[in-house]
Write a structure and sequence with these properties.
Blueprint: E1 21-29, H1 46-64, E2 85-90, H2 95-106, H3 111-114, E3 116-118, E4 124-126, H4 128-131, E5 138-140, H5 159-167, H6 172-180, H7 182-186, H8 189-192, H9 206-219, H10 231-249, H11 259-277, E6 284-288, H12 291-300, E7 319-326, E8 339-346, E9 357-358, E10 368-370, H13 371-379, H14 386-393, H15 423-439, H16 441-448
Parallel strand pairs: 1-6, 2-5, 2-6
Antiparallel strand pairs: 1-7, 3-4, 7-8, 8-9, 8-10
Helix pairs in contact: 1-2, 9-10, 10-12, 11-12, 11-13, 11-15, 15-16
Signal peptide: 1-18
Organism: Cladonia borealis
Transmembrane segments: 424-449
Length: 473
């Protein structure tokens, strides 16, 4: 997106020191540049493909390739080992291709030398496409077309989360902005009236309007009444969309609104803990999702206290990264008390000139957390079992008709043995395994990564809730 859309995040301490060894990594990324939601079908653009490929290439150079500054201990540097990497994305025309493009940068073609096989009769078989590497991606079939919607709600049919997000449209804060910005949005009608009707041009559709104009600014050589789109106007369009979407994704007094961030938190812990319990044999996790997941996690992890820019919508190809590392000897696999976690974020495409930055989680001042503190902080809001999810969401049908027996939040302390597992994380693991058995693998990924759409009336239907914009014919 345009540079003025989101102010650059303030640089904090460097990513790592020479004494550290990276043992595991979790990357959660947004998709690349795409076409506008107001003109479906929404598709990944060539620019978007280039963005995620560029980010994947940087992560390769940083964490995978031989000689990289923070190479993951034991990671295969050239030819991917499937057991070392877990990748997932919704089956969507934007998110799935973005994940595939990122993986192509992470593990590029290996060339004719490595990309060949000699058969028993002496015949040499070359891998197609110059040694192109195929990395499986777990898919969510029920999430097809999620990027076609103008309004993302990370509730995955969580009844109370849907109600909570809809409550924003009745709040004094929303009503004040709706009224105070009416004239501003009316002034934009000459720019957007080919797609938005007059009764759709308001703060109620702040994100749809921003998205439509943002895509036009990137891709269109001419825009109707473009003289109206001054730098200050574009910044205000973006800022209002930031406010609109953050309030739909998170509310401090009603945490259920951020159910996506809560389930993501459980997955982050579970995946990194799997790296520990396997002795580093499963070190790399990559997941693609929409901006709502970012924003709900930002709120829950109190990242907004570290930098106010975390109230904003992450740009295309933005990444959240969790490094699991140690300052002890990496072999044998370190004891749990020797493990630490660092959170990093990068707004937009990652490259050598713009890299992820470490930020403190949970309102703390230190960017490095012990594994124990990381797990306890995450468990303060993580939702990692079916029964927790059903109880929190108030759902009683479908998979919630017979919830599992894990009744409450996961708690406990970290064990002290080498490669040990905390009771807290054991609770998450057990809950997640139970959840996978009951819901199936695809449904699990949908719960922790996919973004569902709250059912909404269309604009002009007389509802007092959010709308999905329907372009005029």
């Amino acid at each position: 997106m345009r540079p003025q859309a989101l102010l650059p995040l303030t640089l904090l301490p460097s990513l790592s020191s020479a004494a550290e060894t990276i043992l595991g990594l979790y990357i959660f990324s947004r998709h690349g540049d795409r076409t506008a939601k107001a003109t479906p079908p929404t598709l990944l653009t060539d620019l978007g493909y280039s963005e995620v490929f560029s980010s994947g290439t940087w992560f390769r150079d940083q964490y995978i390739a031989n000689g990289s500054t923070s190479q993951i201990h034991g990671i295969a540097p050239d030819i991917v080992k499937q057991a070392q990497i877990v990748a997932s994305a919704p089956l969507d025309d934007v998110l799935m291709p973005s994940c595939l493009g990122f993986l192509q940068g992470l593990y590029p073609p290996v060339g004719p030398t490595l990309g060949s096989q000699t058969l028993g009769n002496g015949t040499v078989v070359q891998v197609p496409l110059n040694g192109f590497q195929i990395i499986p991606v777990a898919t969510v079939t029920s999430g097809t077309g999620s990027e076609d919607s103008a309004w993302l709600q990370g509730s995955d049919n969580c009844a109370k989360a849907i109600v909570s997000s809809n409550d924003y449209f009745d709040s004094p804060e929303y009503m004040a902005l709706e009224n105070s910005t009416m004239g501003f949005y009316t002034s934009l009608e000459p720019v957007i009236n080919s797609t938005f009707a007059a009764n759709q041009t308001s703060f109620k559709n702040a994100y749809s309007i921003f998205d439509y104009i943002n895509v036009a600014e990137i891709h269109n050589s001419t825009i109707p009444s473009s003289n109206l789109l001054t730098n200050s106007t574009l910044f205000q369009i973006r800022t209002l969309a930031d406010t609109h979407e953050f309030n739909l994704a998170y509310n401090a007094s009603d945490p259920i609104r951020a159910i996506t961030g809560a389930t993501l938190a459980a997955q982050f812990v579970q995946a990194l803990n799997n790296t520990i319990t396997t002795g580093g044999k499963a070190p790399l996790n990559i997941q693609f999702g929409a901006y709502g997941g970012f924003q709900s996690f930002f709120g829950l992890a109190n990242l907004t206290s570290a930098n106010s820019d975390f109230y904003g919508i992450p740009d295309y190809a933005s990444t959240m990264t969790f490094e699991l590392f140690t300052t002890a000897a990496p072999e044998p696999f370190p004891a749990v008390e020797d493990l630490s976690v660092r959170f990093l974020f990068h707004n937009g495409t990652t490259g050598n000139n713009s890299v992820p930055v470490a930020y403190p989680l949970f309102g703390q001042s230190n960017t490095t957390l012990s594994w124990n503190d990381f797990v306890n902080g995450m468990n303060s809001f993580a939702v990692g079992s079916q029964s927790q999810w059903c109880q929190a969401c108030g759902n009683s049908t479908g998979v919630c008709a017979s919830p599992d027996s894990n009744p409450g939040p996961v708690t406990g302390e970290i064990g002290s043995g080498s490669g040990g597992i905390s009771k807290a994380v054991a609770g998450v693991i057990g809950a997640m395994v139970t959840l996978a058995v009951i819901l199936g693998v695809e449904a699990l990924i949908m719960l922790v990564a996919g973004l569902r759409l709250a059912k909404k009336n269309r604009v002009g239907g007389g509802a007092a809730t959010g709308e999905t914009v329907t372009p005029k014919a």
